[in-house]
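Fold this sequence, please.
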Amino acid sequence: MSRHPDIAAVVIGRNEGARLIRCLAALKGQAGRIVYVDSGSRDGSQQAARAAGAEIVTLDMSQPFTAARARNAGIDQTRQTGTAPRYIQFLDGDCEMRTGWLDTAKAFLETHPDVAVVCGRRRERAPEASLYNALIDREWNTPTGEAKACGGDALFRADALEAVGGYNPLLIAGEEPELCVRLRQAGWRVWRLDAEMTWHDAALTRFSQWWRRAKRGGFAFAEGAALHGSPPERHFVAETRKAAIWGGLLPGVVLLLAVLVTPWALALAVIWPLQILRLRWRGEPWASALFLTLSKFPEAQGALQYLWRRLTGGRVALIEYK
């Protein structure tokens, strides 16, 4: 017997191994239904999920994969089979729900009928394992209260999801903020609680992984701005502009001046160390200030990749980092 029979948990994953087992174990006895959407795993994830009592949805991998498409497949499963839930808790397979989260989140939604989705504190399981894990743990520490967007872990009203058509299945990243834009445009609100929600296992140990993750973020910024960048929303416009200026325009100008005018123009590169100092002055730790500045280069690369895809009409593969 579950504590919350009117909640369905939708978990998406691929080759998550022990992390998926922990994820499903934490849900046992909490949600009325557990739906696991698998995206081509070869490590026995489907068998492990079935043994944990989850309903299995195997995503058709002949079509381009996106996390948004996987989550929509989970939503469809809850509608087409069994008892349709009132709420849906989404989780990535590398996350583990904290004890008491569903109690807190459901109680908030029941007393705030205009809130479509609620999320809480997501924390890294091992921030000490690498600098990159520590940076991501700091990234998760966002303000509480009414918010513009949630992340991949969140409790949604099922009827609000249905009203706006679910996730945009074409987005390779940034699908949750884009969904929240449409929810807010429909009159719903988004809320972040000061409550422990999930452990996350980023497992980032290499600079190349961090770079690809930032690149994916830049792609999401550019695509989000293209979809909802007009006033009053201005979705991801500022983020795209910063990436374009700091990671694209300014480096190009400095290099052109150095080649066409004088090598002394390379001294203008001091603007990046000055930016690091500015962020440090604003309270960012040294490592965070450094990587926030450095991230503009892969973000610009991702934004450029989106622009090229849009101009050429080509397909883009998922930008994976682990």
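The first strand starts at residue 4 and ends at 13. The longest helix spans residues 237-260.
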